[in-house]
UniProtKB/TrEMBL annotation:
Protein name: Myophilin-like
UniProt domain Calponin-homology (CH): residue ranges: 25-134
Organism from which the protein derives: Vanessa tameamea
Listed Pfam families: Calponin, CH
SMART domains named among the record's database cross-references: CH
Chain's gene name: LOC113392171
Any one GO cellular component localisation term in the record: actin cytoskeleton
Family note: Belongs to the calponin family.
Lineage, top ranks: Eukaryota, Metazoa, Ecdysozoa, Arthropoda, Hexapoda
GO molecular function, one term: actin filament binding
Annotated InterPro entries: Calponin-like, Calponin_repeat, CH_dom, CH_dom_sf, SM22_calponin
Length: 187
């Protein structure tokens, strides 16, 4: 994290506090335990934000994790601790999880992890990846992903549905009290 920056103040500090309040140590611990089951790392699976950041900040563990899903999905994992090399690792992880089926709205931005801006979104991304793990023969975490429920309607059913008045148009059941149209205001 960039220690040379001044702390946030005012509305920015409030927004950051709101983001940080979403973080859950128990879910982060569960996520790190899941990563350890698959990759054998990290040694420390404490769920506090500082530990999660220290374990994941260089992106190498994240790249190793997605390589367990598909061999060689991240071809070059940078071992350097230089900022741009670590951020390349994180970005390679993010591109791979999208290809593995994690919805884009459940991913995070590189800066969220690198500058410790939004570790909650990092955990959400890993949990979403954990739901996909079962389809790749790996242990999964979190709630089971829903199956598709495709419905087929006949032409008669579709035509019958066109005659139904949607509740968005209101209802003709009863009358609202106190409303009458056409009366003049008495002065």
């Amino acid at each position: 994290m960039a220690d040379y920056r001044a702390g946030k103040a005012g509305i920015n500090a409030e927004a950051q506090a709101r983001i940080n309040s979403k973080y859950n140590n128990d879910i982060a611990h569960e996520t790190l335990e899941w990563i350890k089951r698959i990759t054998g790392q990290p040694e420390n699976t404490a769920g506090d934000a500082d530990n999660l950041y220290e374990v994941l900040k260089d992106g190498t563990l994240l790249c190793n994790l997605v390589n367990k899903f598909q061999d060689g999905s991240v071809k070059k994992i940078n071992q350097s601790t230089m900022a741009f090399k670590c951020m390349e690792n994180i970005n390679a992880f993010l591109e791979t999880v999208k290809k593995l089926g994690v919805p884009p709205q459940e991913t995070f931005q590189t800066i969220d992890l690198w500058e410790k801006q939004n570790l909650y979104s990092v955990v959400i991304c890993l949990q979403s990846l954990g739901r996909k793990a079962g389809t790749y023969g790996l242990p999964s975490i979190g709630p089971k992903e829903a199956d598709r429920n495709v419905r087929e309607f006949s032409e008669d059913q579709l035509k019958a549905g066109q005659n139904v008045i949607s509740l968005q148009y209101g209802t003709n059941k009863g009358q609202q009290s106190g409303i009458s149209f056409g009366n003049r205001r008495q002065i």
